[in-house]
Amino acid sequence: MAEDLKTREALLEELAGMDQKIIDLAKTVTKHQRLAEAWRDLWAQFAATIEAFDGFIYICSQDYEVEFMNQRFIERTGYYPLGQKCYRALHDLEEICPWCVNERVFQGETVRWEVRSPKDNRWYYVVNTPIKHPDGTVSKMAMIQDITERREMEKALKLAEEKYRGIFENAVEGIFQSSPEGRFLSVNPAMAQIFGYGSPGEMLAGVADISRQLYVDPRRRDDFSQTLRDAGFIKGFEAQMYRRDGSRIWIAINARAVRDEAGEVLYYEGFVQDITDRHQGD
User: Which of 1, 41, 77, 258 sits at a 20 to 30 Å CA gap from 65?
Assistant: First the structure.
């Protein structure tokens, strides 16, 4: 009877121990489940971030093989070129791109640059970043944005600036920009010639106060500025002015006030004609 009691007690202790092990195991399983759920949530956030990027992303190995490509890039490529050479998948080339920066990236450098793809003749801004793996290997991640429209706008702006510069430099009329305070911001060669200066730079350096140095009657400068502030433009404004040598000339000005978004005057710009011949009999 005593032995049966001891056996029963031993069984109860063993069962109690097994219950504790089951509880501990359940806690471990729950912990792993939470870790797995957290990892899934983290991966979902990462994937959403990758797909939200307004551009192309791909990762390649040191052997130039594609290891990952986001959905936008897959759509551009037309398929998922996993394991294929990046230069073939991205640019339809049969050998490493002549502009390739992989060696620099695999040495740990982040490289930013612009390139025109021979595949579609579009311009792209590329940020190449090294990815270091736990096993010591390195991959390259490239984040790419299509900047073709920006490049075309820059080209158009450059052409427009060159066209304007040609008109500005070669016009027979004087062209100027001046501040409301009375300093020239820019003058063309014809403007400098009208006032007896050897070059635009010489006139800009020599005239610090338009009202006092050029106007025979400084109050005419006030009339000029007031009209521009009130009306925004002026046509056929005539005034007598001094040339560099002190001689007097008559000029006619067509000008406008250039304002900022708040309506404040930034500067005046306009055209000047020498009309001294009209006033010879005055």
Answer: 41
Residue 177 identity: Q
Is 120 found in the same domain as 184?
A: no
CATH code of 56's domain: 3.30.450.20
Are residues 135 and 184 both part of a single domain? no
CB-based burial, 52-84: b 16+ in 10 Å, e otherwise: eeebbbbbbbeebbbbebbebbeeebeeebeeb
In this predicted model, what pLDDT tens digit does every residue of 220-249 receive, in sequence order? Answer: 999 999 999 999 999 999 999 999 999 999
Q: Are 242 and 264 in contact (CB under 8 A)?
A: no
Distance CA 274, CA 174 (A): 9
Of how many residues is the chain composed? 282
Q: Residue 13: which residues within 8 A CB-CB, separation 6 or more?
A: none
Residue 115 falls inside a structural domain: yes
Number of domains in the chain: 2
Token reading at 252 = 């006619």
| Euclidean distance between CA atoms 22 and 38, whole angstroms | 24
Tell me the CA distances in angstroms from 26 to 22, 32, 247, 248, 269, one per residue in order.
6, 10, 103, 103, 82
Residue 29 lies in a domain: no
Dihedral of alpha carbons 41, 44, 49, 50, sign: positive
Side chain identity, residue 109: E
